[in-house]
């Protein structure tokens, strides 16, 4: 799993804390402010905001859906 974030992003911090609480502390964190290639990937996918969780190649950008997916993965 990968979590695409930005330097200043309250929703990103929320999702990151949800991942840690669920035991997913090994998720790769990618800050698109510092990774132009990752930023281009997100833009090319038609997404314009973060956080974005990548699970098995699927990009999930709705925060509620991300939290739901985290809950599903812990069951």
Name the features:
alpha+beta, 4-stranded mixed sheet, 3 helices
Brief digest:
The chain is of the alpha+beta class and 75 residues long. Helix content is 43%, strand content 20%.
Description of the molecule:
- There is one protein chain.
- With 75 residues, the protein is α+β, with helices and mostly antiparallel strands.
- It has a domain at 20-49.
- The protein is 43% helix and 20% strand.
- The protein is built from three helices and four strands, in the order βαβαββα.
- It has helices at 10-21, 36-44, 63-73; strands at residues 2-5, 28-31, 52-55, 58-60.
- The protein has a four-stranded mixed beta sheet with strand order 2-1-3-4.
- Helix 1 links the parallel strand 1 (2-5) and strand 2.
- Helix 1 (10-21) runs parallel beside helix 3 (63-73).
- The radius of gyration is 11 Å and the shape is globular.
- 19% of the residues are buried.
- The mean pLDDT is 94.
Radius of gyration: 11 Å
Order of helices and strands: EHEHEEH
Largest sheet: 4 strands, mixed
Helix content: 40-55%
Give me the side-by-side strand order of the main sheet. Answer: 2-1-3-4
Q: Name the shape in a single word.
A: globular
Quickly give the structural class: alpha+beta
User: In angstroms, what separates the terminal alpha carbons?
Assistant: 16 Å
Q: Overall mean pLDDT score? A: 94
Count of beta strands: 4
The number of helical runs is: 3
Strand content: 15-25%
Unreliable segments of 5+ consecutive residues:
none
């Amino acid at each position: 799993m990968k979590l695409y974030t930005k330097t200043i992003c309250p929703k990103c911090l929320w999702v990151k804390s949800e991942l840690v609480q669920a035991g997913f502390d090994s998720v790769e964190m990618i800050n698109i402010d510092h990774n132009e290639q990752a930023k281009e990937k997100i833009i090319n996918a038609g997404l314009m905001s973060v956080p974005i969780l990548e699970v098995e190649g699927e990009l999930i950008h709705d925060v509620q859906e991300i939290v739901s997916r985290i809950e599903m993965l812990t069951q």
